[in-house]
Fold:
Amino acid sequence: MDCIARLGNGRAIGRARVNLFVIRAFIKMREQLATDAAILKRLAEIDKMLLVHDSALHDLYQNCCRCFPLHPSHPAQNRFSPIVSGADSLACGGST
Structure:
């Protein structure tokens, strides 16, 4: 009751409520922006990891294709025939 008496009339009370509403809205906006920034930072980290993994998987795929080319008699099927001669067998885990 003392607060109402100090503010004077209904207009002052209404303005005080609007001011509090605006302040709270700005606080929520600031919290949301901070949350968004954290999410964007995490997404950037995930994107960087995916690029690294994509590169590693591409290299692995290239090595597999070199070591195990598609069988020439069945190109539509994914049958592999290993190469076992020379330098290719070393690159594919073989030994000479």
About this structure: The chain has one domain: 2-91. The helical segments are 2-7, 10-67, 86-91.
